[in-house]
Amino acid sequence: MKIDDWIYSIEVLANKDYEGAYYPSVENIQGAKDYHEGKADHINGLKKIDDYTMQVTFDKKQENYLTGFITGPLLSKKYLSDVPIKDLAKSDKIRKYPIGIGPYKVKKIVPGEAVQLVKFDDYWQGKPALDKINLKVIDQAQIIKAMEKGDIDVTNDATGAMAKDAKSSNAGLKVLSAPSLDYGLIGFVSHDYDKKANKTGKVRPKYEDKELRKAMLYAIDREKWIKAFFNGYASEINSFVPSMHWIAADPKELNDYKYDPEKAKKILDKLGYKDRDGDGFREDPKGNKFEINFKHYSGSNPTFEPRTAAIKDFWEKVGLKTNVKLVEFGKYNEDLANASKDMEVYFRSWAGGTDPDPSDLYHTDRPQNEMRTVLPKSDQYLDDALDFDKVGIDEKKRKDIYVKWQKYMNDELPGLPMFQGKSITIVNDKVRNLDIEIGTDQSLYNLTKEA
To answer: 365: domain range?
Structure first.
């Protein structure tokens, strides 16, 4: 890989035929907008100096341009440039025969089942320790049994239930856990959305009143829910920023939406959501039937269905009729990306990055803003926190703005913060050199296994 490949990777993200969500990560490079709109055949803010150096010019000063700058994974120009960008994501060169930049290379892919990696002898750090690594797709309910039999050595992103089973096993399994930047929320799709134009449309008024959203959060016993489904590997959160991040607000500065079903009922009564026909469920203020349509993605995690049912139970106890549906993961993501009409209330978890800026998920103009929020005050806070003329390199100034943003979002509550998680990795006692702490390099290059 050389600089031409890095430039090519950026040009792919900026191309008008690229349909993914990462154009915002490169749009502030000088000339990227003209290239994206087809007014230029290259990005003039990218200048190759030599095979290993380039100069990047941005259109304005912004605090996080370097931490947010696209550094990988990089694409091979020589290998991929003959594939039209509109076909790239679905091409065999990406899906079946990918080329990466790591210490191992792909030997074989069995779609939906496994990927076999073999060591790359010419890796820049030298040959990796292991000859091969096999990545397998296994039903979550079977993972611990497979580890006990020796079929699996490591499982990342394990659940609390899996950790509990591993701790009670006699097969030499170790549970590694550390604070993480993961958090989960219940979101509301608040506006129509044109994905192709990346334009937010008409408001969807059903959940427009923030007091209704607050009532829905007060109605959920998050402590009980977390204890039941995360086995101690998560905690309540009232922010859209995990507490581990350096920009996180002091929890004491935020409204604490502790479980209070009576308060939820009083808010609903005041808003006019009342049971008018005696069926035990509330109608809306106009007397029309009101039902929450709540979706969760499906998968092999056995907690998905019961934890969704638990949310339904909490809401129905305060008189809010709730319909739940588990949707295939790919379809679920597609519906959110397009703000489909039947996507109203949904569950989502996110893993934060080293750059703490939450703009990608909550700024009005970002494709990944799945709630399709239109909150000008929120946008202004997020813009100000990155404005070099306002914050420079002063982290305290930047944090102060992000704290104001968190306080605003904590009151506005465009979504319902549910939990912040801990990372869980389960390994057998033969694996060495695995570090899961935030900020450490989990590179496969360092992994070894005793015979």
So the answer is: 178-420
